[in-house]
Amino acid sequence: xxxxxxxxxxxxxxxxxxxxxxxxxxxxxxxxxxxxxxxxxxxxxxxxxxxxxxxxxxxxxxxxxxxxxxxxxxxxxxxxxxxxxxxxxxxxxxxxxxxxxxxxxxxxxxxxxxxxxxxxxxxxxxxxxxxxxxxxxxxxxxxxxxxxxxxxxxxxxxxxxxxxxxxxxxxxxxxxxxxxxxxxxxxxxxxxxxxxxxxxxxxxxxxxxxxxxxxxxxxxxxxxxxxxxxxxxxxxxxxxxxxxxxxxxxxxxxxxxxxxxxxxxxxxxxxxxxxxxxxxxxxxxxxxxxxxxxxxxxxxxxxxxxxxxxxxxxxxxxxxxxxxxxxxxxxxxxxxxxxxxxxxxxxxxxxxxxxxxxxxxxxxxxxxxxxxxxxxxxxxxxxxxxxxxxxxxxxxxxxxxxxxxxxxxxxxxxxxxxxxxxxxxx
Length: 426
What we know:
This protein has two domains: about 5-180, no CATH class; about 285-425, Outer membrane efflux proteins (OEP). About 75% of the residues lie in helices and about 0% in strands. It is built from 13 helices and two strands, in the order H-H-H-E-H-H-H-H-H-E-H-H-H-H-H. It has helices at about 5-40, 65-70, 75-80, 90-100, 100-140, 145-170, 180-230, 235-270, 290, 295-305, 305-315, 320-380, 385-420, and strands at about 85, 280. The chain has a two-stranded parallel ribbon with strand order 1-2. Helix 1 (about 5-40) runs antiparallel to helix 5 (about 100-140), helix 7 (about 180-230) runs antiparallel to helix 13 and helix 10 packs across helix 12 (about 320-380). The protein is elongated.
């Protein structure tokens, strides 16, 4: 069968448009999915995760490899990812391999690459056919058809080479084509980390409130007994009872919020709805990290990873002196805005560090006051109302300390995320 130039162009353009159409649809679908995933993370609904992780051999060379080897992980690391514990430092890998929206998007991109490979193979096959027919025409001295077949061979060769080059670029881990996917994946991972920070902060708060409930229950019983003995008034009893009921109500609210946060967190990381993995602890704020932060020095890394700046660099620009000056001015403004945002986040970190150090001192003072109040109350030297005040002050100090720690850790993580590309240049 002879492929006419018009037929070849129609085939080529049609298959390319099909591939580009799938990629455009895939990108739009991912963007919508990620918006759903990260929109306040209140009401996520997913079916079972579509795993991107390779669980069986995909080609002869993979036969005999373990799942860890198939996915490029050590056996120990793969075992950690596949257990029923969600640790903070695993979130990036869990989102990449098991998040439904992310894995579906990467799968669609891979399908598009496979389609492009098929197109290239078909074009090269037709090229070889034209080369054979060209040689036959040359052998038979049919110079009219020889030129025609030669023209088709060259057209097919250029088309297949250009498409193969595009496919190779698509296959690279970091390309302009897959940047929306990489950005969306970073955002999903960032969202999951924020959820885990919030979950663990609330879990620690629950422990404080649960302890308060126990203390108030004991104090309520003691105060009732003291009222019978004439050592406490009805007002004292009512005050303690009010604190007890308030703590019990707070505890119930925390439990409801914990369930919601955990459900959203595990869905982002690839577990099915209703699963019950163990949630690991969030790392505590490491003050030594702050010493290594320098917005001026870190700007280069932030620029290199920033999607808006990368897109700007890849845009077509006119080469007139006026256009170049405008481009340079825009670029300089983006860099300056990014540096300003980095500096503002760094100042937030310093402020949160000061708040954290103040909370540490406040907790130490409140703990000393509580210890003294414990002794005085046991000796009958302190009224129930005054003891209740000391307990409340202590629990508030513990809450402030935990909140300050979580806030500082979150601020430092946000700075790191900005360096990884999640920063505004406006």
